[in-house]
Amino acid sequence: MQLLRLGPVGDERPAVRTADGTTYDLLPLTPDVDGAFLANDGVARVRAALDAGELEALDAEGMRVGPPLARPGKIICIGLNYRDHAEETGAAIPAEPVVFLKTPDTVVGPYDEVLVPRRSVKTDWEVELGVVIGRTARYLESEEDALACIGAYVLSHDVSEREFQIERGGTWDKGKNCETFNPLGPFLVPAGDVADPQNLEMRLWVNGELRQNSSTKNMIFPIAEVVRYLSQFLVLRPGDVINTGTPAGVALGQPEPKPYLRAGDVVELEIEGLGRQRQVLGQA
């Protein structure tokens, strides 16, 4: 099952795509795919409606694919969560997860334009597995409890501006929160439909050249531990998103001259079972 949102910016409608490729309208069942939908057994209700034949097919041809989650609550990001990425950037392997935040208004659709910020010279790419929380979590004691709080998985692009992030003082947040810096989607896959989220192939291309090629099995801190750990410091609520880190292959880790993104570049990325994104870079 693939949960998605289709339509113009700000006017997307909820939908579901089944294994045979048919897209069904979810408006009779829910006003949107958001935290409330996940918290109130939305996935189970969609399955029941599909089994009962209660949903009408939707002609999605030509419709824009928006971000598959409406109104994310928090976007919590884990930095340096792949050993090879930490090594390529010259950073020490962290003893605990490195945590930073992105604002929800950085989220755009998977095929929407990504803007290189004004005065940017080091805009970078990062393919990441996104975890969508489906149940409120606080002070979790076990990784099993953590996994039970995950509602869905999603392909996420954690776009970064390295000069803003690293060279301008303060926290990383300045280099992570420029507009359009978190394309999401194209769809959510319910957690129960992903057999092993810790063994998914992930890739990213820039202008057709393969830049990142790894697997979620290479995380330093696995998904369950990340969720458990975060719950000690934050209340995780339905609709929150966790970006779980990126593997080696980012521009920051390349030899000089580093191939940072420019307007006109094309970035494509995918995670096994979670679909594919494509963005053309524009100039802010």
UniProtKB/TrEMBL annotation:
A biological process (GO) annotation for this entry? small molecule metabolic process
For this UniProt record, give its keywords in alphabetical order, as a comma-separated list: Metal-binding
Task: Report the source organism.
Answer: Lentzea fradiae
Could you list the residue ranges forming a coiled coil in this record? Answer: none
- List where the protein spans the membrane: none
Q: Name one GO molecular function term.
A: metal ion binding
Q: Write the protein's name.
A: 2-keto-4-pentenoate hydratase/2-oxohepta-3-ene-1,7-dioic acid hydratase (Catechol pathway)
Q: Which Pfam families match?
A: FAA_hydrolase
The entry assigns this protein to a family as follows: Belongs to the FAH family.
Ranges for domain Fumarylacetoacetase-like C-terminal come to 74-279
